[in-house]
Amino acid sequence: MNSHLAGKKVLITGASSGIGMYLAIHIAREGGTPILAARSVNRLKIITQQVQDRFDVPCYWYEADLSNDAAWKDVVDRICFEHGPLDALINNAGMAVFDYVSEAKWQDIDRMLGVNVKSLIRTTHQLLPHFLNRKQGHIVNIASQAGKIATPKSAVYSASKHAVIGFTNALRMEVEKDGVYVTSVNLGPVRTNFFKEADPSGGYEQAVDKMMLDPNNVAYTVVKHLFTERREINLPAWMDSGSKVYQLAPTLMEKALKRQFSKK
């Protein structure tokens, strides 16, 4: 197979559904080797079997709770021991609970920061020496347009994604001289199970239904840009334009879009 992904080993977190599942499929389609990590063992087994049967490439899965730092570190160590140096890391795992800060539960806040920020930095920190030693590799961090435009009831989630974007931008500058690519993927709402936990009422998902991104298309776009020097992937394009206007005139945007911002 003449593909830039042929034989490449790619670790995908949050790989049991949604974007993570489609990332595995598109990587395998291009001859790559997906290495999947998530909590749902049953889902991981099904995806792994389907990928192997359909594309005739190796695919591996690991049960992992990324909110448990010590346990996740051990899983990453095991992955490195069993597979040797990896070629790419896609930090896809993420979660949210939409609430006003005054009404939020601390355990929800702690878990959001643990999964969205700490585990992402943990995985990157653990694998980065392998990439630097080989003078190659690609780190892709799935962030969010919420990291650029904050809205009510998403203060902690927005803060976590703002942290991801900041971390990604700084890391990119640190390692570009060493041949390692770093990309931030900033997404609007995606049609996945994400909102079942973020907003169990279903109100927000219904409100943004017409603008939701297809996870299959998102994954295809990310995989297409693997091992290329891409600073950011912003989807949808119109939302990226809105975030740029927001940076120039935040007060005006907040007043003009107050109703839309408060749909959660």
TrEMBL record:
Pfam families: adh_short. The keyword Oxidoreductase applies. SUPFAM superfamilies: NAD(P)-binding Rossmann-fold domains. InterPro entries: NAD(P)-bd_dom_sf, Sc_DH/Rdtase_CS, SDR_fam. It comes from the Bacteria. Gene3D superfamilies: NAD(P)-binding Rossmann-like Domain. Keywords: Oxidoreductase. Belongs to the short-chain dehydrogenases/reductases (SDR) family. This is SDR family oxidoreductase. It comes from Halobacillus amylolyticus.
